[in-house]
Amino acid sequence: MKAAMMLAAALQLSSAAHTPLEAVDFVPYLGYTGPLAVAGTAFVEVRETSISEMKYYFIGTDPACENGTTTPYACGVHVHVGVSCEEPAGGLFFQSPVETDPWATVNYMHNTDGVTTGTVTDLMTGYSGEETVGRVVAVHDATGAPVACSTLMPVYQNPLTATNWGPYPGYSSNLAISGTWGPMTTSGVTQTYAYDFSGTDPRCVNGADPANAVSCGMHVHVGMTCETAEAIGGLFSKGVVTETPWLVVNYVSDATGNTEGTVTVMTGATQSEMVGHAVVVHDYDGAGISCAILEMVSCPEGCLPMTSGQEYRRARKARKLLFSSAPGESPPSAPSCPAGCMVDENY
Fold first, then answer.
1. Which spans in the chain are helix H?
2. pLDDT tens profile 129-181
3. 308 domain residue, yes or no
4. Helix, strand, or coil (residue 53)
């Protein structure tokens, strides 16, 4: 019994030891009325009681920070103790036994040509991952004043797929897409997905029409329904991506309309922001053929999401030790896992 209790404690610890968080949808800091309009995403990895890594991708930061700064807190990207952007952010995020403020020298260098990015590691805060959830992330200008705010929330890690294809509204030709878009995973604000379709346009055998921006295209749209063309809307991107990345994403079919491949595209969105959006596959003329919705992959027992981290797998291994078959019993056979899931080797 004591060994089982120790393993159960290890299971809880291992699943909580690593906490990935993200801050999206930055808004003007409370009371800020200046000209800066920051958009983008910050990612935080918490291990034990420190932020092991913080990455950020921003546009709209202060041009006066182009050469960096030696002024403490100026041009900063900081986590604060506050939990709402509708209230002051409060002090910087660290507590005893940490004695030295880890945020004084955390600052960005404004990129005049595009996206301001950066990575900071090993920030001792004294707070656990659970205590870091919901905290304010503030972006500061060259004077140290906060200009933008968001809050840290858990990263959505499950892969996404689109499989339930229906006719694009108003499409009346003889093509109909079947197959799978996905699994789609996200690293930062960049998506990678596979596709395997039948029913695409055989005229795309030599690629897209160079005179048509959406010829033979396959795109994620702003809409979250396939009911009407108006509701499907335009092409989806956000945050640091101000021009659509989708116009170079297209397929090459074979003579029977089959196609498969892998795409990587930077949309500026996180995985959670991709959920529920409409996916459209186009013909050679650029008309939408079929539409489907990006949905979370639900992995059955014995399967793990393809993006599951090592901590989660260790937790599953501890669970296996706790609840394994009795002596003489046959272990369960390996399950059949759907797209986006993989067999849990410790099942």
1. 2-16, 129-132, 229-232, 271-274, 310-323
2. 999 999 999 999 999 999 999 999 998 778 999 999 999 999 999 999 999 99
3. no
4. strand
Give the structural domain span for 94. Answer: 15-154
Q: Which residues contact 210 (CB under 8 A, 6 or more apart)?
A: none
pLDDT one-digit tens code per residue, 57-105:
999 999 999 998 989 999 999 999 999 999 999 999 999 999 999 999 9
As a whole number of angstroms, the distance between CA 218 and CA 195 comes to 10
In this structure, the answer to whether residues 143 and 164 fall within a common structural domain is no
In a domain, 345, yes or no: no
Residue 33 forms part of a structural domain: yes
Question: CATH number of the domain that 207 lies in?
Answer: 2.60.40.200
What is the residue whose two structure tokens read 């501890």? Answer: 318
Please provide the DSSP assignment of 17-35 as one string.
SEEEEEE-S-EEPTT--SS
Beta strands in 60-163 (DSSP E): 77-79, 116-124, 136-140, 146-151, 153-154, 160-162
347 and 332 Cβ atoms separated by less than 8 Å: yes
